[in-house]
């Protein structure tokens, strides 16, 4: 539709650009693109079934406009959340979002800044003309004020600059960030890419103070200068009709000032100057990684959205099948991975094409040979670019297929990705689909593109801790050690000779035709469809097969998940090491075969689950059984354990295990709680830390691996689930593929007389912390340069069916459905309901208090833990508040204690009604001071989140597989738990907090996990006097019992009973 139609809404007009957008055949949303009177372009999406409404706005300004104060754009992004003239309370937006089950975030890139949020959508079906306000309306109004009248409050200035600095420090030891910044710092000094985008205290506080710069005024000037409606794009997704969404957009966003700014462009400034190339950079990473990166200046593809040569050249360089770069380098044991990628820098500046090779130890020694092989492949492509026409045509066919059957993603992903796409040059009709579309092959353009990949334009980076010389320089912002040199003349000459000499290794060639492209895309009838999975009747006692025919998404796809159980897999750390390496060997052996399948939309994984091996295949159901059969055959029978591959993969796993302890502490700490609380006994599957697998990995030989596999295949049992466009009969055929591979493996190992193993062979159990006991476990992190400490403040809960309260009796609906309700099951549901509600209340408030107000650190999060220690069906559950900071762990714990005290009127055991409504400081407590309406809104936010519909088949399958995996088979868990949430009274929750959560409670069970920096560990108890004063009188950490020997400590605890089905499994059969 032409852009000439205008619609008047509330006296103000919006120009209709189009309401005819290309979209997937399964997409039932309505779309409209309009332009407001201030030239703000808006994509409206109406989805009557959406659970979470969302909006995202992108503005065409980012860190490239920082000027002489690096981090300015990033700091402005932070400040816009901190209050506006209409909503002056600095936490108002996030409080509104959080209380309605939502989330928000923003990101700053070199050329744009994107803000986005999601929130519970309107209740029920929204009628045209409805005037009932929704949480989305309130959120959208608050959101719009970011861009019309932000306050840049003086009271938040230091706080937000500190937040930016915390984000900088969070990633200071991250190799990804350090290498990214090194690449920027070694680019053309005249290009803004050469700058530093994150910002820190030095750039945003110290230097400006020395120069007399008022940073609050500067941030305001940046916003008023660079934030203009004509360079913004807005995407709005809601349950409301398009006309309603358009009216909201017009009313709320038309007042954003339009300064008619030109698009930000950087023409005629090369990313690398002529004197910088060709060159080689050696750099020293934090982790033990080995990579070779070869980069070239590429095309500026800003207007090439219909052809995108970089996409196809990247795909062919990344190919893993026969004839590929990777296949050739793997055969020489030089590489473990190869990828190609094109990166756009900014409008007006040519992009970059990079080939990245993950080197083996031998490959590191031969890095120049690897470089030559890369150029051999490039030279082959340059000789006849028309060879790529067939590959491009096939890629287009698969991309079109992927687009037409693309399913929905979560709301925030949709709006943020869409407004980013709107910032490009693609026409509006492709705003939701250009990422998967292209036109015919352009041979002349491909010749021009490939011609850019010349030896004298190469920027080569070798990343390794092993370097024969000395590190001559340090990068300015992150201190990364590196050395640069001009590309040696001898190597440059050899590379030019490759182009002159037409002799190529015969092993390098383009891929063959893809055999996995689906031909049958029919949707099966839904006569088998049930609302929850059903069991197939089988003769094999060692296999339990579940099935659910999809009747919601109606795409020609399926997902098959199979858990292969065996008690020996986790019987020892050595066995787990063997099993882990075996999954790597299988994946490695299948790489060439499976890559063609992946290009055709079929994916698989072989990993370790809670009971043993987990095999997962997904994609178009037409060819899915072929992939499943090949994966199982390789795992159980056909894998050839080769010495060279075992050594390479073992070495890679060992490096991964060691590198895992160099990650940020906040990424390490979630592993400790399941490790500490999983029972170490023959009938359980203990959770081990990566370092515990190292001795076992080091001892593995080819013979021991072969022996381990033979032992495992003799006694496997299987629980599997077929979901999607698969009928009951087809699910039976898939099950026969699994059974057939199990039988063949048994026969191959001369065990045809082996008795079938019963399914239930392994019972994960959780250790229970006694009531009233508070433990502490402390470790020092391995990275001596990381100054961050991290705490996980974990509270454990378990049901007590013998202690009913107003909400602990079976709710009326559940009792009527099942007169013989299991009281233990009901108690478990009630516990989960209360836990989810209190976590929902805690999460935004503890974030605001500890991060925003107290500025303890960038990472403050609350984790709901319903699966303890690997025992997913356990009755035990809990939550953890985690904080990463330079502050001492003791101090962090004290501040968490202080926050928890504010939840109710006083710490300690539950008391009668009539208790005062203030905490020890005299301030009104969170729950006592909460109005009934606010409390009901919190409950509704929890229920809405629990009952949120699956967005796609993958989410639907995972929802049911989670209930199969935990062996409770409670397929209606969310619905039943939600009913219990609605029954909770405010007094119920107050009593719950006082009994189970309050720091002073004699009934509370908790575990504090400290990961200390070397600096903190050497200082011992390092709470400063200032911090000690701030923390007040609360010092619960001093009453904790330290865990000095983990094995002895585990032996002293009782284990929970473990998972059990909510009803007799026989009741799930189709014919029951």
From TrEMBL:
<dbReference type="InterPro" id="IPR011249">
    <property type="entry name" value="Metalloenz_LuxS/M16"/>
</dbReference>
<dbReference type="GO" id="GO:0004222">
    <property type="term" value="F:metalloendopeptidase activity"/>
</dbReference>
<feature type="domain" description="Peptidase M16 middle/third">
    <location>
        <begin position="403"/>
        <end position="679"/>
    </location>
</feature>
<protein>
    <submittedName>
        <fullName>Metallopeptidase</fullName>
    </submittedName>
</protein>
<dbReference type="InterPro" id="IPR007863">
    <property type="entry name" value="Peptidase_M16_C"/>
</dbReference>
<dbReference type="GO" id="GO:0043171">
    <property type="term" value="P:peptide catabolic process"/>
</dbReference>
<keyword id="KW-0862">Zinc</keyword>
<dbReference type="GO" id="GO:0051603">
    <property type="term" value="P:proteolysis involved in protein catabolic process"/>
</dbReference>
<dbReference type="GO" id="GO:0005739">
    <property type="term" value="C:mitochondrion"/>
</dbReference>
<comment type="similarity">
    <text>Belongs to the peptidase M16 family.</text>
</comment>
<dbReference type="Pfam" id="PF05193">
    <property type="entry name" value="Peptidase_M16_C"/>
</dbReference>
<keyword id="KW-0482">Metalloprotease</keyword>
<dbReference type="GO" id="GO:0005829">
    <property type="term" value="C:cytosol"/>
</dbReference>
<dbReference type="GO" id="GO:0046872">
    <property type="term" value="F:metal ion binding"/>
</dbReference>
<dbReference type="InterPro" id="IPR054734">
    <property type="entry name" value="PqqF-like_C_4"/>
</dbReference>
<keyword id="KW-0645">Protease</keyword>
<feature type="compositionally biased region" description="Low complexity">
    <location>
        <begin position="799"/>
        <end position="810"/>
    </location>
</feature>
<dbReference type="InterPro" id="IPR050626">
    <property type="entry name" value="Peptidase_M16"/>
</dbReference>
<keyword id="KW-0479">Metal-binding</keyword>
<dbReference type="Pfam" id="PF16187">
    <property type="entry name" value="Peptidase_M16_M"/>
</dbReference>
<dbReference type="InterPro" id="IPR011765">
    <property type="entry name" value="Pept_M16_N"/>
</dbReference>
<dbReference type="Pfam" id="PF22456">
    <property type="entry name" value="PqqF-like_C_4"/>
</dbReference>
<feature type="domain" description="Coenzyme PQQ synthesis protein F-like C-terminal lobe">
    <location>
        <begin position="837"/>
        <end position="905"/>
    </location>
</feature>
<dbReference type="InterPro" id="IPR032632">
    <property type="entry name" value="Peptidase_M16_M"/>
</dbReference>
<feature type="region of interest" description="Disordered">
    <location>
        <begin position="799"/>
        <end position="820"/>
    </location>
</feature>
<feature type="domain" description="Peptidase M16 C-terminal">
    <location>
        <begin position="218"/>
        <end position="385"/>
    </location>
</feature>
<dbReference type="Pfam" id="PF00675">
    <property type="entry name" value="Peptidase_M16"/>
</dbReference>
<feature type="domain" description="Peptidase M16 N-terminal">
    <location>
        <begin position="42"/>
        <end position="190"/>
    </location>
</feature>
<keyword id="KW-0378">Hydrolase</keyword>
